[in-house]
Amino acid sequence: MTTIAPVLALPLSYTPPPKVRIQFRVLREGEVTSGPKFVRLYRSWLTISQVAMAFCTGEGDGRGTNDLTQAYNVDVATLLAQGEWLACGVDDAPPRKTRAVYLTISDSGVLTYNITSGEGSGGGASAEITARVRVDGVLAEREVVFVEKPSNGQFRIAGYGPAQDGESVVELKVTDGLVYAVALDDWGTVFQPNLSVAEGQVIRPTVMLGWLYRVTQSGQLPAVEPAWWDESLQGPQPLGTARAEVVRYYRPQAHGPQPVELI
User: Fold this and answer.
1) Which terminal Cβ of the chain has fewer Cβ within 10 Å, N or C?
2) pLDDT single digits (tens) 57-90
3) Is 49 within 8 Å of 58 (Cβ atoms)?
4) Which sequence spans correspond to the domains of the chain?
5) For residue 111, how many other CB atoms are within 10 A of its CB?
6) Is the separation of the CB atoms in 210 and 231 below 8 Å?
7) For 19-115, which CATH superfamily applies?
């Protein structure tokens, strides 16, 4: 006689992927106004018929207030793999307005989306300036924002762009004021347990102490945040199955006023 013993199926251990919580605060020309407003995220103009995520304020299909949309929990890996999202905002209140911008999202938070006609800071004479950024004396690619203080005293954004390979020409719109340059360091992605990371990506500890960690070998971050090291430990170190090296974070640096060339 053959006896078949029952087999007890044990559940496999499962670690949910790290997620961030995203919500939008939607304004019209910088103000909270009545009526529903929508923000839709697409992967590119080529896939405009496929909405990746849709947000709307409380008077639409959302469950928020006049200016806040509903919130979504999104896999961090999905956001990082995409990089830039095409974000289109719509307000159908007369006169109807729409605006499209590219957004990079990596952390939880409430993102302010201003549906504006673009008038105001976009005006002025065309000009250009050479953006040159050095980190520890070496040319490095960083974002640079140019701020103008016109004669009316109201600061405005004259332009912005990356200093590609440490140096590039940035196009501006200027009026009659002085122009100042602000260089921004890479703020990195906050540590998320078990997050898949790629070479070159920058990781930020949950408690910032002035150091960031640039991934030198792709892999997966550990399940528990490690004891972070400082510059006294040089070279790539294990970080889960990945490896990373410590780099200093530099606060935004401002210079100016800077001369610009009208074109």
Assistant:
1) N
2) 975 444 556 789 999 899 888 888 888 899 999 9
3) no
4) 19-115, 125-184, 189-248
5) 16
6) no
7) Carboxypeptidase-like, regulatory domain (2.60.40.1120)
